[in-house]
Amino acid sequence: MAGNSIGVLFRVTTFGESHGEAIGVVIDGCPAGLQIDLEFIQRQMDKRRPGQSALTTQRKENDQPQIISGVFEDHTTGAPLAALFRNQDRRSKDYDALVDKYRPSHADFTYEAKYGRRDHRGGGRSSARETVARVFAGAVAQLFLRQHGIKVKAFVSQVGSVKLTKPHHQLDLQTTWDNPVHCPDSATAESMKKLIEEVRSQGDTIGGVVTGLIQGCPAGLGEPVFDRLHADLAKSMLSINAAKAFEYGSGFAGVEMRGSEHNDPFVKDGQKILTSKNDSGGIQGGISNGMEIYFKVAFKPVATIMKKQKTVDRQGRPTEIEGRGRHDPCVVPRAVAIVEAMAALTIADHFLRQRSIRFE
Amino acid sequence: MAGNSIGVLFRVTTFGESHGEAIGVVIDGCPAGLQIDLEFIQRQMDKRRPGQSALTTQRKENDQPQIISGVFEDHTTGAPLAALFRNQDRRSKDYDALVDKYRPSHADFTYEAKYGRRDHRGGGRSSARETVARVFAGAVAQLFLRQHGIKVKAFVSQVGSVKLTKPHHQLDLQTTWDNPVHCPDSATAESMKKLIEEVRSQGDTIGGVVTGLIQGCPAGLGEPVFDRLHADLAKSMLSINAAKAFEYGSGFAGVEMRGSEHNDPFVKDGQKILTSKNDSGGIQGGISNGMEIYFKVAFKPVATIMKKQKTVDRQGRPTEIEGRGRHDPCVVPRAVAIVEAMAALTIADHFLRQRSIRFE
Amino acid sequence: MAGNSIGVLFRVTTFGESHGEAIGVVIDGCPAGLQIDLEFIQRQMDKRRPGQSALTTQRKENDQPQIISGVFEDHTTGAPLAALFRNQDRRSKDYDALVDKYRPSHADFTYEAKYGRRDHRGGGRSSARETVARVFAGAVAQLFLRQHGIKVKAFVSQVGSVKLTKPHHQLDLQTTWDNPVHCPDSATAESMKKLIEEVRSQGDTIGGVVTGLIQGCPAGLGEPVFDRLHADLAKSMLSINAAKAFEYGSGFAGVEMRGSEHNDPFVKDGQKILTSKNDSGGIQGGISNGMEIYFKVAFKPVATIMKKQKTVDRQGRPTEIEGRGRHDPCVVPRAVAIVEAMAALTIADHFLRQRSIRFE
Amino acid sequence: MAGNSIGVLFRVTTFGESHGEAIGVVIDGCPAGLQIDLEFIQRQMDKRRPGQSALTTQRKENDQPQIISGVFEDHTTGAPLAALFRNQDRRSKDYDALVDKYRPSHADFTYEAKYGRRDHRGGGRSSARETVARVFAGAVAQLFLRQHGIKVKAFVSQVGSVKLTKPHHQLDLQTTWDNPVHCPDSATAESMKKLIEEVRSQGDTIGGVVTGLIQGCPAGLGEPVFDRLHADLAKSMLSINAAKAFEYGSGFAGVEMRGSEHNDPFVKDGQKILTSKNDSGGIQGGISNGMEIYFKVAFKPVATIMKKQKTVDRQGRPTEIEGRGRHDPCVVPRAVAIVEAMAALTIADHFLRQRSIRFE
Q: What sign results for the dihedral spanned by CA atoms D95, D240, D76, D142?
């Protein structure tokens, strides 16, 4: 219970360090009888994979899961579904200079404060390499959700000050994966790409925003009062490296609205009760209402920059540091797949939890 | 495990409905030997109490805890610390008209979708009345944290479009409780108050933002990779009624920054290692770094307005509804105490969790 | 998470001390829509109630639940189901002499070792008074299980060396409640009663065994590998005051059997697959197989005796102690209801857990 | 949360099937800074290893852990400690005949009832092969406990009707590992060995009892009221394959004792408060009292016998089955190491939990 697991019934545990042997994941609670579509899973893996474009780190990993347990004749058995991802392209030497120095805005100092020691190679457990495990687990969750008509989708909606201004329902989300930024508007994507390239050429990094959508979610998911659906989504999203903020529905903009303007009127559409607009973001009282769930996650600029920075060493003596290793100039292109994964894990967990609370 | 508990080691469970007999709370895991200062607790309760000013609902509750268990000779015993708050001023008749109608942007529809039924009186379990239990538990957590030099503080930093623009370290937080809005800047507080009064006179409601601070937090709290300190804070905050967004440190603004600008350089100050600025918001890699933790929580406008609204009934037939009952025109003045409580619960839990992870 | 909760989905938390204001219980996760039959619940409460016969403590408690939360129009709402039991007949003065002394084989010494302090009145939280909360929760669980055709039954099968020798399927379990010992064989019950009376007249106490049965349990409950159904039953049973041992199916006797003798052959009976005998006790590989589950729980003699005993005080100085207060000479007549309750809680929890593990 | 994890703070998750690629284990919560003594770990592994003597299955596995994560420079880092054990000697063909048949008293039928399918090869997840992961985790727990002066020890005390009659404090436990039965009395061990050989020569199997001891356990471990130390020990022990019963302290024998005889008088010994005898088995009120903890675990005869047995197939049609594969004629010689492991896991978890409950 040291923070490496998430979910109550669809429970995911990850292990492994960036420059260790492998990254691994165990899903305990994946329903038995689910068909495992390895091609779908690999497509999700590839969305997060390093080296997929010039905009990302050039670390070479094929990110192919080795399934150890829980699948028999292409279906889940109910046993823990475990998979490994070998770390193929480690360059631990790149980190030798860092063994005694704290990189600014990295986890070096805090890991030592917490544990009294750390594995300095490649950031150890604090590296985004760990998210390979999440994307696998999220892909399995998506396979499960798809059988129940639920889809999760995400895309880049901001890089630096370049924003995607169109409302998400006017976008063709099929195009998200047509460009290396993963923004479903080609003109905006192009501006974002230019900004990332410019920033990188300066040895610098830049932040961004990922928008997430959950479509086809039935009404009734989420648990009052602490495990509200959006509260668990917030936790999932803020557990992603470099995430700084989360909002859903009207979010921060809702602050300036009047109740009469913000409230979502109920209407009947055929046999279904809907709302005529959706400032609630698909969740009311912490429980899904059957409308589309949408949210945004803000990411800070990556801490590793290719510039000299002042810092201190373990003894607190002033020193300098310069970025080495292979890093992303902006996390959001690769974070899209991670946001999808964490959203899928959260919804799958609440989907299973909802099965137990009705007397039937 | 239906969402009514939070925390791993300092574990809080709440129960009770808005118009039931009482609201209750159980803290399982409060360390034994903590002196219970009832005056301090009551001061925290009073910060959230309805009817404290003309800006809040006029429901009359004294909100005095009746401690049932876990305290002996003014100290905690290690047994579950349980307390009750009697509901004294129920007017369930106000809700009779609502038994078959779904109030827009309330939890009526979603509770029925989830459970197949609901206690319609006063919003039942979805009412903010439930938070009386949280403020009690949070006050106990604060007593614990204060013994370790940790303080949590919150204040209103925005109402509608009226914003507190001064950075928080330039404010005199002592003055937070001098005005009914609970904004530590008297001129801004006055503008906020006027806005709330204006909105209320129109039968409408308005949103706002609460800023939270955690001071004196030692480095090392928070658990990678899923239970990052800010991820658990985000969940805590978004579990509060009407919360729509959370950001910490640079938050959404950090998106537009370069890494070279955002990174926090380490410096030595006496025997301590600090950062010379704090865009990280006191947390790096999900673990506290010893600097001040700060964050913002956005609240939407209250859904109950004193205006006619269109909606549907259980059969989906169009109908109208008009606000009755006693309600807040803006939640943030009372939400300040709840934000403090949830922050204290989160930090107390991680403080205890940290005790187990070092070999000593 | 200090041990006062049990169950994953049907999660029960108890609070309150023997001589405090009240004992309380919260069930978080009871399915919504369950009809609450208060008469059934009270019958279960009365089976455990003190003073029900001359064989039990004469403490006077009516043990009527005050339901605080979670029930509306006689049905559960899905909100936490909370109830209180006022402590009506406290005689804390009886314990004044014990404030500095450790009663042999009581929890006085260990509570102080654990917490650094204790509420000495009536044993505080270690008193069997706490089980009033369990019997209530267990009765609610039984209401739920009965709707699914599952019944739990228990009875006294041994007091001291007086044993019920008939196999349980030859007994008329209806008669369990016809005698104050709660043994479904009148002749054996009479011998047990005499033994308890004799022991009590000597100021002494005696141990006993309770047998538990779960009938109508469907195949498939229980979770490999750690949460095996019998492992969770063992934990539940050994969490009851004075319990020292648990066995299910062939139990300790199975040790001396050969595999060829112990194995349960499968047979077909109509459309169902059964076993032709049941040394497995209804559980194979940790999962119910649809046969009757049966088990035994051993209880030691009550530690409070009406005789002088040697002990030490807080400073370790030798002293003497003499039993006061009102106590049971043998726990098993009242433990029958507690065993039923804990069995029902365990099965209800696993029943709900099983809903999540199949892809449907 | 499908049963593959145990422990609150020292939390162990296992994965992998008997005839899959590997068995794996993740320890989340092992304190950072613990030195990992691989030789000690391997010695524990070897105690459970198949093929160690003529009395056990002849499956050939070297059972050497491959540590994937959580150890750096021979010390734990606080990150999840994960290890794999490759399955080297699989003979899945041995199980082909069983694909449609339910082996008596095995988990074939119940796994199918639960999950709707099963991996029939080698018993899949229900195989005792899974316990290799537990022994590894238990060895790590023992390394931790040894640093705090706590030792766990176990030995065989009964095979069939051959019992070790000497009280455990009269035994030289060093000799436990001198004979293949793992009974610390050579004459009794010899009788047990003969019995096992005789039973095996008949193609049959036999049950047994393992006694466990925990020495040096400080007073104060265990959590009232549900997570009593002995309740958690009972669950741990009954989660081991083939376990049917658990007793601690006086156990079933205590039933026939009087309170005046059973009670343990407190005495002072130097600066320590002890009890002059120990029928309590080192635990009072669910909390350790500083005395030796002792308990017994009963194991049934192994279900796989080399004799023809009647059973049914999936359609319920009568059929016959004959044991194949390589199996133990009696589990207890190898179960000793597993009992030690599960005891260590339980105590380590409660040791860490105890750190959080005192105000310091």
A: negative
Radius of gyration of chain A (CA): 21
Q: Is the dihedral of CA D156, D307, D63, D193 positive or negative?
A: positive
State how far the Cα of B29 lies from the Cα of C3, in Å rounded to an integer. 8
**Considering Cα of B131, then B135, then B136, then B138, what sign does the dihedral take?**
positive
CA distance A17 to chain B (A): 11
- Give residue ranges of A with CB < 8 Å to any C CB: 8-9, 29, 31-34, 76, 78-79, 144, 147, 224, 352-353, 355-360
Indicate the angle between helix axes C332-354 and C131-147, nearest 10 degrees. Answer: 50
Shortest CA distance from A354: residue in chain C: C356
Q: Which residues of B65-77 are buried (b: 16+ CB within 10 A; e: fewer)?
A: bebbbbbbeebbb
Q: Which positions in chain A touch B260 (Cβ < 8 Å)?
A: 204-205, 305, 307, 309
Residues of C in Cβ contact (< 8 Å) with A9: 353, 356
Closest to B105 in 3D by CA, of C220, D294, A277: A277
How does DSSP classify residue B201?
A: H
Please give, rounded to a whole number of angstroms, the shortest distance from the CA of D82 to a CA of chain B. Answer: 15
Q: Are A205 and A143 in contact (CB under 8 A)?
A: no
Number of domains comprising chain A: 1
DSSP string, A18-31: TTSSEEEEEEE-PP
Instruction: Sort out which chain D residues have CB atoms less than 8 A from C297's CB and list them.
Output: none
Mutate to test the interface with B, among C13, C108, C345 (most CBs of B within 10 A): C13
A with D: how many residue pairs have Cβ under 8 Å apart? Answer: 157
Four-residue CA torsion sign, A127, B360, C113, D173: positive
The confidence score (pLDDT) of residue D360 equals 64
Beta-strand ranges (E) seen in C87-160 are: 151-159
**CATH number of the domain encompassing residue B124:** 3.60.150.10
Which residue in D2, D21, D77 is closest to A115 by CB distance? D77
CA dist C97 and C107 (Å) reads 16
Structure tokens belonging to residue A230: 């959006």
Distances (CA, A) of D96 to B250, C326, D65, D93, D119: 61, 64, 29, 5, 11
With beta carbons under 8 A apart, name residues in chain A contacting C357.
Answer: 29, 31-32, 78
Q: Which domain does B167 fall in, by range?
A: 5-357
pLDDT class for D114, splitting at 50, 70, 90?
A: very high
Q: What distance in Å separates the CA atoms of residue D283 and residue D230, rounded to the nearest whole number?
A: 7
Q: Which of D33, D357, D360 sits opposite B358 (nearest CB)?
A: D33
Is the Cβ–Cβ distance between B24 and B85 less than 8 Å?
yes
How confident is the prediction along chain B (360 residues), in pLDDT tens digits per residue? 799 999 999 999 999 999 899 999 999 999 999 999 999 999 999 999 988 888 888 888 889 999 999 999 999 999 999 999 999 887 777 777 778 899 999 999 999 999 998 888 777 899 999 999 999 999 999 999 999 999 999 999 999 999 999 999 899 999 999 999 999 999 999 999 999 999 999 999 999 999 999 999 999 999 999 999 999 999 999 999 999 999 999 999 999 999 999 999 999 998 899 999 999 999 999 999 999 999 999 999 999 999 999 999 999 999 999 877 678 999 999 999 999 999 999 999 999 999 988 876
Model confidence pLDDT, tens digit, residues D64-105: 999 999 999 999 999 999 999 999 887 777 777 778 899 999
Neighbours of A320 (CB within 10 A): 9
The whole-angstrom distance between A73's CA and the closest CA on chain B is 32
Element (H, E) at A69: strand A66-69
Query: Closest to A28 (Cβ–Cβ): which among D13, D72, D116?
Result: D13
